[in-house]
Amino acid sequence: MGKTSFVILLVYFSSISINLGSALLCYSCGAQLGYRSACEVNVSNRTVPTSYCNPGYTTCMTLFTNATITRACSLPTACSQIHNYTRCSTCTRSLCNDGFAPSYSVPVAMTTLFVILKMFV
Q: Where are the transmembrane segments (predicted)?
C-alpha cells in the first residue's frame, strides 16, 4: 500500500470515529408527575434510560406539562414549537437534561450581567 493510500484510509477512519463520538446523548423518559419516578427525581444514567440523538436532533429537552415530564432528544426549536407546557428547556451537552435548567445560557447571562455592571462602575 502506498503512502497516499495509507493517509486516505487514516483520514477516512478518523472521520468515522469522530462522527460516532460526537453524537449527543440525552436522558430519554416520560412519566406522570407526583409519583417521584426516576424520570422526575434522582435522574442519573443508572436510573433513567439514555439514547443517542438522530441527526438533526442537536439538543436535549426537558418538558413539563401539568401532569407529565418528558426528557428526550429534540430539535433546537422544540420549546417554541410545542404548546400547552408549563416549563420547557433545551441544552446542548450530553446528559444535560438531568434537571430543569433555565432556557437561557449561563455564559450569556454572566456576560450580560458583567456588561451591565461595567456600565455603572
A: 6-27
**Quick count: other Cβ atoms within 10 Å of Cβ 112?**
12
Measured distance CA(15)–CA(4) in Å, rounded: 17
Return the CATH number of the domain spanning residue range 24-120: 2.10.60.10
Largest CA distance in the chain: 67
- Residue spans of the domains in the chain: they are 24-120
Q: 69: exposed, middle or buried (C-beta count within 10 Å: 0-12, 13-18, 19+)?
A: buried
* pTM of the predicted protein model: 0.65
Average pLDDT score over residue span 23-33: 96
